Task: structure prediction
Amino acid sequence: MKAKLFFDGASKGNPGPAGYGFVIEINNTKIEGKGYIGISTNNVAEYYGLIEGLQRALKEGIKSIEIFADSQLVVKQIKGEYKVKAPHLKPLYLKATELLKKFDDAHIFFVGREKNSEADRLANLAIKKGQRVGRSLASKGPEESPGPTGQGAG
Result:
């Protein structure tokens, strides 16, 4: 099964309220995912989109995947063209590359924002929903945002 994964991350304020979104296209079917990660940077949110999308693809039994993103930084880091200098991104980068090794065939490509609009919409929707949930939970104290398996928000 060959699939396409589109992912995106967004942060309102950078750092600010942040979320990710992904869309997996396979056999004329779309699988969508999104999540709110709390206060973070856009780059962290981008990595969350990639990691969560890869984890879902593996869960679906996908072995061959083409990945598309409008984050030049993440794409070039995954391809090895840029070093991962920011210490808070290193664990996310390592998790993403660990997941990529589980596919028989995986390639990542940079695309313009117009080709990544569905993932972008989901990332922004996650922020809106997360902010509403965050306000209603404010009286209960701080809440830890769930991250990719085994990883923190960085």
User: Anything to note?
Assistant: The two ends are 33 Å apart (CA to CA). Strands lie at 2-11, 16-26, 29-40, 64-69, 105-110.
